[in-house]
Amino acid sequence: MKYKLIALDVDGTLLNDNHELSERTKQTIQEVSRSGAEIVLCTGRGPQNSIPFMEQIGLTGYVISHNGAATVDVVTKEVVHQFAMDTQALIPYMDYFREQRIHFDVNTAFHMYVDSVEGMAVEVRSMYENFLMLPANLPQLQEFKEPVVKVTAFDHADVLDKLYEEIAQWKPEFNILRSGEYFVDLMHPDASKGNALKQLAERRGILPEEVLAIGNYFNDITMLTFAGLGIAMDNSPLEVKAAANEVTASNNEDGVHEALLKYCLS
């Protein structure tokens, strides 16, 4: 089978634990691209801190960002599709995060906002620096000129375990997703990596069985199950491995390189 569309998660998949892309994985992706496959990054990051990896590899095309909430053209920076959230319905969640002293950010396709940039804790600021982001101060919701596509809560894992359990019992207005050990995302109910990948494949005239996807966390399950071949990293939780067709090496062992070598270049 020659896969025509290859979706790669970024953190914990494409990048190692130092947030670095290895030269070996980069060269393998370039070789797969030269063979005719289209590469798309499918990530919880926004386009502004995921498109640079496409440029580093030398790729054009698309990034599926914000866990599927916004798909963006790498070259033109055009938002080709996004799932807009009901901002009024977000207010109780934001109030709850503030009451619980849980840090959160509000995202449009290209911008990120927090309650107070100046008041961010050191570990919060460090997190944004690791992800190559600097948020701005949050305006009033009615002042937003662009759709809000994602709200992310950030805290210790045990705090987010309790948060997820609590808000998952509320009226099901959003897709509430554990997108990382220290993150919980709220998105439009139809927004997911799998749904965005499905839309992109249809737009490109590519069948599901011609799609290969590689990921490592719960937010990747929808794209792993949509793709004809879903591959989990060895550093994935057991539930993610169970949802995948295959398991490759970890992100610190060039698992993306190993998978592409086996299924696209052999």
From TrEMBL:
Extract the CDD domains matched here: HAD_Pase
Q: Does the keyword Hydrolase apply?
A: yes
Q: Which domain of life is it from?
A: Bacteria
A Pfam family annotated for this chain is Hydrolase_3
Instruction: Give the molecular function GO annotations.
Output: hydrolase activity
- EC assignment: the record states 3.1.3.-
Q: Which InterPro entries does the entry link to?
A: Cof, HAD-like_sf, HAD-SF_hydro_IIB, HAD_sf
**Keyword annotations of the record:** Hydrolase
Task: Reply yes or no: does the keyword Transmembrane apply.
Answer: no
PANTHER family the UniProt entry points to? HAD SUPERFAMILY HYDROLASE-LIKE, TYPE 3, PHOSPHOSERINE PHOSPHATASE
Q: What is this protein called?
A: Cof-type HAD-IIB family hydrolase
Species source reads Paenibacillus chibensis
